[in-house]
Structures are given as C-alpha cells and as structure tokens.
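Q: what sequence does this backbone want?
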C-alpha cells in the first residue's frame, strides 16, 4: 500500500511541476522582450495567451493579438483621415496595411517553424508601426493602440528567438 501511495504522490508532484513550467510561459517570453511589463500587459489580455502551453500556441495568440491591435489602429486612422489631410496620417494607414501583411506572413512562418522568417516579418511589422509613431502625432487612443502593436511585436520577436 505504501508503494502505491508513494507512486501516486510522485505522479502528482510530476504533474504539478509540469503545470508550473507552463504557468509562467508568458512571463518567460516577456522577460526577453524590450519592456517586460508592457509585454505581459498585452499578452495577458488575450485568453489564448494565458492558456498557451507551448511557444507555438503562445506565438499564434501573440500574432492574433498584434493583428487585432493593428486592425484597430488602422480603423482609427481611417476614421481620422476623413477629416484630416495630414500626410503623416495617410502614411500611417499604409504602414498599418503593410504591418498586417507582415503579421499574416508571421502566421505562416510560425506554422513552418521558420524562426528566421518569423523574426524578419515580426521586425518588419514592428518597424511599420513604429514609423507611424515617429511620423504622426496621433491622438491618445491611437497612440495607445500603436503602442499595443509595438509591445506585441516585441513579444513575437522575443518568442521567435526562443523557438
């Protein structure tokens, strides 16, 4: 009987240790990003990121988040462009479109486990959006969405280096 109890205890501890290693996957990735606190904030807003049990599923969730933030920023910029002729704003809209295309390629790279391509495309999306941040004095809500894209792309870059 003691042998069975010992085996059960060891099996339970093993499962607990596996669960512990997964529980902090977001923190592990974010510790390698540009700003860990911002990375944690944006990734933890997506339930799929919190439930991720491996780098591929976390990468997929991060790409989905970055895509959503970019689409939101693009929509805000498009609305603003209806009442503004600011060339910086028009440039932002183009940059958001390019960022979305790069993020779509990130999905393909992640599926293929092509670390190099994932890194290049995430970096390109980051640069697209960062260029907008530098060239256009956006209103606060758009600035916030731009920063969310940048923070999420930073997480994808960190993750690509861990694959």
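A:
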């Amino acid at each position: 009987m003691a042998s069975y109890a010992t085996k059960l205890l060891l099996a339970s501890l093993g499962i607990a240790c596996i669960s512990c290693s997964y529980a902090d996957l977001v923190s592990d990735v974010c510790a390698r990003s540009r700003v860990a606190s911002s990375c944690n904030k944006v990734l933890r807003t997506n339930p799929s990121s919190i439930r991720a049990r491996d780098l591929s599923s976390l990468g997929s969730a991060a790409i989905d988040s970055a895509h959503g933030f970019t689409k939101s920023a693009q929509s805000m910029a498009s609305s603003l462009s209806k009442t503004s002729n600011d060339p910086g704003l028009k440039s932002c809209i183009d940059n958001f479109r390019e960022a979305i295309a790069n993020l779509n390629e990130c999905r393909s790279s992640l599926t293929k486990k092509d670390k190099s391509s994932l890194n290049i495309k995430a970096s390109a999306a980051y640069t697209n959006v960062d260029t907008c941040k530098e060239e256009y004095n956006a209103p606060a809500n758009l600035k916030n969405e731009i920063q969310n894209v940048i923070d999420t792309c930073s997480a994808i870059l960190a993750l690509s280096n861990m694959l």
